[in-house]
Amino acid sequence: MSHPRDQSNNLRVDRLVIVSNRLPIVLTKGDLGDWQVQPGSGGLVTALAPVLRDRGGLWIGWPGTVEEVDLDGLVAIGSQDAGYILKPVKLTAEEANQYYFGFSNEIIWPLFHDMQSRCNFDPAYWNMYQAVNCKFAQVIAQNTGMNDYIWVHDYHLTLVAKELRGMELECKIGFFLHIPFPPLDIFIKLPWRLQILRALLEYDLIGFQTTRDRNNFIHCVEALIKSIRYDTRRQVSTITVPNREIRVGVFPISIDFNEFARQAAAKSVAERASLLYEAIPNCQIILGVDRLDYSKGIPEKLQAFRNTLERFDDLQGKVTLVQIVVPSREDIPEYRELKTEIEGLVSEINGKFTQPGWIPIQYMFRNLERTELLAYYRAAEIALVTPLKDGMNLVAKEYCAAKVDTNGVLILSEFAGAATQLRRNSLLVNPYDIEGVANAIHRAYNMSRDERRSRMRRLRKSIQKRDIFWWVDSFLGQPLPIR
User: Fold this and answer.
1) Please, what's the largest Cα pairwise distance for the chain?
2) 0.70 cut: is pTM over it?
3) pLDDT tens digits for 136-146?
4) CATH topology for 257-465?
5) Coil vs helix vs strand at 84
6) Which tens digit of pLDDT belongs to each residue from 92-133?
7) Which residues are catalytic?
8) Where in the chain is the domain with CATH 3.40.50.2000?
9) What is the DSSP letter of 106?
């Protein structure tokens, strides 16, 4: 990728600066009190690390710990391994609790996933959210120049551009929302709706995962803010406010397809996939890979699998669901309760249907290293990706990229952002429709190998064409208005 340029006035952008809640590293404390630095594994890291690597970029974010440690030294180690510079934003325990666990994940996350009943609209959260966004802006201002392109990511940092403009920083600032943007009737429940919208309009370019998300945002702006005009005739729309314009576009995030496919084709992955076949003989493997979160619809998925076994007894002993749940936010009571519910359902289903030599569900609650995950992707004949709501869901794309033999079926929630791109060649389902998902599982099991391969070839071609580098170039390549 070449250096991005500001096409409106042809100023060279010297450096790409990524700003996100978390740095792309994980700090772990050993038994002896020593600290280790490991690469992060989230969707944003997976997407952006290949782009910044060895290109002289800068990534600003919170290291994920509030303990008193030598952050600068540990982050320096992470910078060497990453191939680009990392700059930490230090947060206190109170800041992390109220800004991150509070406002970001007890208000914005559930509200934007259409689950407003889970919101906790504590005013203290809003005050801290503003303070931490200001702290991020201060670190950005101290470490960037006029010709840097600042690309801010996700719902934790919606106020950053407003804070930077207040500091009279005039460089180009883009924002990308990785989660869905809700429709007006849900968004207006946010007590600080006007502040959030006005802050977002301080960015030069705002990116969304889907056309629905972009249109929801524009409709909210139209309804709640006076003296604006907009034009939605193109993929990248224009919102005009007094004295300036903001670009608002659709940029579906993706993966490094070629790298996933290359790694999946490795001998070590093939060998591990063969071991999985041997461990689960005479069964088609149905794979679920989800982070522990109520938006992922894991209990609903398990209920659909139970319905499959109840209604299609010809599948008993013929399919095994391998459900991998990646730990997340376990210190939050609601997530601990979700984990207990999932484990209860797994136990109940296995207790009812297990036969000698066959266990219906193999459940794992842990992180998987890349080779092991790719082996499961390769071994699984069916992927069950059924979130209740998701900005994109990169698991769906990773699964397709890893299916180098093209023998696989993707069952995909219509409420995942990925459905916009992959709907024609996946089996699209409503995750709330338990029988509908069960019917899709039965259809996938009985699908001919020729149809499977034809569908998967088209899925892979589509993802390869619009990979992570296409996503970055399409965003950074947008001409920005002169302020």
Assistant:
1) 73
2) yes
3) 999 999 999 88
4) Rossmann fold (3.40.50)
5) coil
6) 999 999 999 999 999 999 999 999 999 999 999 999 999 999
7) 178, 390
8) 5-254+469-476, 257-465
9) I
